[in-house]
Amino acid sequence: MKFTELKIGDEIKKNLENSGFKKPTDIQYKCIPSILVGEDVLAVAQTGTGKTAAFAIPIIDMIDKQKKNRRTDGIKCIVMCPTRELAKQIGSVFNKLSKHTDVVNFALYGGVEQDKQAAKIQKGIDVLIATPGRMFDLISQKIIDVSSVKYFVLDEADKMLKLGFYDDLIYIKKILKQRHQTMFFSATIDDEIKKLAYAQIKSDAIRIQISPKDPVSKNVKHGVLFVKQDEKRFYLLDFLVENPQAKIIIFARTKVRVERIKKFLDKNNIVCDVYHSGLAQTERERALENFRENKFNILVATDISARGIDIANVTNVINYDLPEIAENYVHRIGRTGRGTNKGEAISFCGEEEENLLKNIENYTGYQINKVILDEQTRKKAEISTLNDNKSLQKMILDTEKHISEKAKKRRK
Ligand code: ADP
Ligand code: MG
């Protein structure tokens, strides 16, 4: 099937062509017609399979047609997602696909001044793409009026429903006055969340698209390397030196660990930047933009960038630490192998992380391939780590010796 066969406006078809989209992906093929006829959708498809356009295309088309028929004011669609950068990214997909149509989109998120956002909204928008915090702020200030909303989308739906956003969802569904269409999208969803989602969808009109058994994108080759905790640095450095052309996201467990990895890489003259929730919003955006534009090729990040972020040419993901939430494994490694690209992911599993690995394997439903290293590299890791530890120990001993000699001299 081609996009040209779909009953959508010519402008949108042109925009798809200009984006280099030749034919719909599976999830687009399944979702677009359903959404166009007004069905509610719970769509589960692997990372990088074009879920954003799967809801953006029909929504833009329906709103554009309504606007061309008669003047209609007010927000017609709300898309909710978990992070600011994701809101911005989804906003830019909507902008790209709605060029030369009458549809006006706006991405709303916290961490920046509210006044300009309010002014833009009050000028009139059709599609609001938002993170929950700022959106509910503006609803309570009566800057956002949701009474004309007809389409409601939750992207990264399982995360949104889990994150304590469930009450928010119930609240917003209550204040949506119109009969509206509800759409849930995610790469992962479990039975509990599915139940919550079902409760929010019209039972008479529901389409569910479930991806194949393996939740990991088929474009991602992934493996696990068993290491000693203090050898991780060696293996990271070794990988980066061996793969100078690679564009890599390195995931670590905490902000502090992310910053430590950056310091370590700085010391070894490897250019990289960090991305985590401890940064100012401008720094967060700058880091992601610069990475997107290849100003540097290594981004060290926390799970905040595990979901949704679409940077086409990321070749590798390294889990320096395993994720504590099993499904985040799928999302993290799904930052590579997007669209038609292929990608590779490797996870370092330290001695204390074997339980996390078990949880992940329970989640994926199979054992993750073990990466076997040659003896030489293993030996090198041992020696290098030993030397690292030795030089640290030597430093400590030297300092102690220095202090005790000083003390001796003083006694004399
Ligand atoms: P998901 O939300 O499923 O993880 P995205 O919507 O972020 O995936 O899309 C992943 C990538 O695939 C994006 O870079 C997007 O431009 C590209 N893409 C989406 N639809 C198509 C298509 N029909 N043909 C080619 N590329 C596409
Ligand atoms: Mg997505």
Report what the structure shows.
- The chain is 45% helix and 15% strand.
- Strands 3-4-2-5-6-1-7 form a 7-stranded parallel β-sheet, with helices on both faces. Strands 10-11-9-12-13-8-14 form a 7-stranded parallel β-sheet, with helices on both faces.
- It is α/β, with parallel strands linked by helices and 412 residues long.
- It is elongated, with a radius of gyration of 25 Å.
- It has helices at 10-18, 26-36, 51-69, 84-97, 115-123, 132-140, 157-162, 166-175, 191-198, 232-242, 255-267, 281-292, 326-333, 354-364, 375-411; strands spanning 40-44, 77-80, 105-108, 127-130, 151-155, 181-186, 206-209, 220-226, 248-251, 273-275, 298-301, 316-319, 343-349, 369-370.
Estimated structural class: alpha/beta
Low-confidence stretches are: none
Count all strands and give the number: 14
The ordered H/E elements are: HHEHEHEHEHEHHEHEEHEHEHEEHEHEH
Q: How many separate helices?
A: 15
Question: Could you tell me the strand content as a percent range?
Answer: 15-25%
With strands numbered from the N-terminus, the spatial order across the biggest sheet is 3-4-2-5-6-1-7
Q: Give Rg in angstroms.
A: 25 Å
Major sheet description = 7 strands, parallel
Cα separation of the termini: 92 Å
